[in-house]
Amino acid sequence: MGKSAGSARSCPGTFARAWAKAVSGTSYLPMTQAQLEALLQRLTERLAVAIQSEPFDLRIGHQVGAELVQAHIASAEGLGRTIEVIQLRLVRDLGLVADDVEDRMARLLATVATGYARALRDRTLDEQESIRRAAMMARAQAERALRESEARFRHQATHDPLTDLPNRTLFTERLAAALDTADRIGVCFIDLDRFKVVNDSLGHQIGDLLLVSVAQRLRRALGEHLVARLGGDEFVILVERTAGTDDVVEVAEAALAAVSEPALVDGHELTVSASIGIVERPAAGTSPMELMRAADSTLHWAKAAGGARWSIFDADRNRQELARYALSAAIPAALDRGEFYLDYQPLTALRDGRVLGMEALVRWRHPELGVLRPDSFIGLAEETGLIVRLGAWVLAEACREARTWADESGDGPFVSVNLAVQQVRRPGLVDEVRDLLRRTGLPPGRLQLEITESTMMSTAEEPVRALRVLADLGVRIAIDDFGTGYCNLAYLRGLPVTELKVAGEFVAGLRAPAGRTDERILASLVSLAHALKVTVTAEGVETAEQAERLRAIGCDAAQGWHFGRPGPAAQHLGRSPALTATG
User: Fold this and answer.
1) What is the mean pLDDT of the chain?
2) 3-state helix, strand, coil in the chain (%, to 5)
């Protein structure tokens, strides 16, 4: 293709500016207007070369179209305006004249459009691939973050935040899994002894640091076993696939040794001990709850034995403990249903055989177990605090019944009622007794309150003051089982005591040939008690010989099977002195 000699002067810059103006705004262009015009001027010069080349080169048009897309002139509107500008102005602005210029222009526009379309397709595919890869990477990162988050949350949910040991949740899961796979299994339930003292004296921060130290020592000593913290100062060890109890005992002893190691905590050298409940049994037929309940019970046995030791679960003992618990839990309902009643045992004057008083002895007519004696349930009532309610019922019932024992002159034997230590220490004892005497009409002198020697000697001033008030009202105060505790007669001088009830252990000795020693002890007690103006009653008198020897040493009264077994009050009232004395 050749130019005409009279063609106009070529002006690529004018065309490039017109081209830049046409495509501006059709796409986001990351360049200035001057940069755009420079780019399009370079492409204009290449278009001029393409339209004049011999032979016609299709590649130049393809490259121009591709470069437009690379420059982000990548929209349908941008392509349309480019084609329009090239078609209308390229030949004119560059002064191109040729016989076949129109044909060449059409082919050039087609190649530009083709190159543009191919580049746009390739860019779209590349962008889609980039998006796909980015999405895959984002998904992988999200999944990884999710797994890490789940692992973190799982760890937080299954581990103790203070010690980082497994917590109750994870321990229970592992225990349940072990029960499904092992033949035999063992558990050591650990509780630190007197840990509360550390918290109370040094503060909870030191206590927490001590727990961390204990956890580290347990994990170090027993790393092959699962060691978990259940909360507070309680830890537990899972011993899987045991061959017998000895395997678990070995673990428990290692745990005791690890816990007892001295620990330096924030400048304090601390030493603690632990109690451990051990359960080892076949895995079949048991459950995590049953195992932990058994371990907990056994831990309390170790605590009750003084701590710093382990105890092994015993099924027979556990059944007895459960029966005791069931019995104690039934006491309130039994009171409501009127299942308790009183028997009485006479307190007999040794001088003339007269019934001076009768001790109230509570019985429980249990609907399933039959009649229960006090030694079956009084200890339980004291442990649970129910003795206060039960004791109040006994006191009220005894006063009510004793009021009916009076003869025509209004006189009659006194009733003697045992008071538990919790009753003695109640602030309202004086008001309770005063109200009972008022409601029943029982004279104060016909009520005797029996307090154990250890209770009397260890009470604080306030309970002793209450007993003095009762004594001033005329109520008799007796010390029961005298001689089994402090046995301090001098201390009695400051107490409002009217009677000593000497423990049956001394009286039992009178039956033996070597009983002269016990007789001399009793004679001394009687002599000293009389010097303090206190009467003496001997308990546990079973034979006429014992009664005679007690009478000979000056003992005032006696109580025991020789003078009458416990029973309804009516069987002891009105008995003749001779019959009473001889049994």
Assistant:
1) 88
2) 55, 15, 25
